[in-house]
Design brief:
The protein has 217 residues and is mainly β. The protein contains no helices and 14 strands.
């Protein structure tokens, strides 16, 4: 389950909610495939493949909204995740920022839906972000569960990107943990190795291979 490890250890990340702050105004879509849908270091598909897709609309002002969906497997009745999000991103001098809200919905799940408020700031190759539970179908209220992360991304070998990630999840009523990953991306392809700090969650590192195709509509 994505959100509350104390609620269920079985518990994205292979996708990014927000388009770049400098996004060109217009409608776009994406479709992706991966051998394992990982979100904050934890598999969302019981270590099985996933197919995903989304639609986004970005304005030159920095306002954006969209939806994204994927198959999931929590070893219960839930089979589908559908996310809705709204945010605002822009640049001030050498800095970029992004704030927004995302709703994680599970149409065939039982008491799984929740929302998060998020914010991030970026400078050069570094970005730092924070997300917190805003509402949930279980006991977590605003500010109860907090995820902070730091990401470094820079170009290597021309146009390939090397990414380094560290995240820390602090639960009001659950098992806190940290996740780490390193990735290489180019032309829609991504190779990622991910690990979490708690063996109770997952004692093995994950190797994730993904491809995402972007479409301007």
């Amino acid at each position: 389950m994505k959100h509350h490890i104390g609620y269920a250890i079985a518990l994205c990340s292979t996708f990014t909610i927000a388009p770049p702050a400098t996004a060109t105004e217009g409608l776009s879509a994406n479709i992706g495939v991966t051998n394992n849908y990982i979100w904050r270091g934890v598999t969302q598909t019981d270590n099985n493949p996933a197919v995903s897709g989304g639609i986004d609309y970005a304005m030159e002002s920095g306002l954006y909204l969209g939806t994204w969906a994927s198959n999931i497997d929590f070893n219960d009745d839930a089979t589908t995740e559908v996310d809705l999000y709204l945010g605002f991103g822009n640049e001030v001098g050498e800095f970029s920022y992004d704030i927004g809200y995302v709703y994680y919905g599970y149409p065939d799940g039982d008491d799984l839906d929740f929302g998060e408020a998020y914010a991030s700031i970026g400078w050069s190759v570094l970005s730092i972000g924070i997300s917190t539970t805003a509402n949930s179908d279980w006991s977590s209220d605003f500010g109860d569960d907090i995820y902070v992360e730091a990401n470094v991304t820079f170009e290597i070998l021309g146009d390939a990107e090397l990414g380094l990630h560290f995240g820390s999840y602090d639960f009001n009523d659950g098992l806190d943990y940290q996740d780490y990953n390193v990735s290489i991306s180019k032309s829609g392809f991504s190779f990622l190795v991910s690990q979490v700090s708690e063996d109770e969650i997952d004692e093995d590192y994950k190797v994730v291979i993904s491809y995402t195709y972007e479409i301007d509509l």
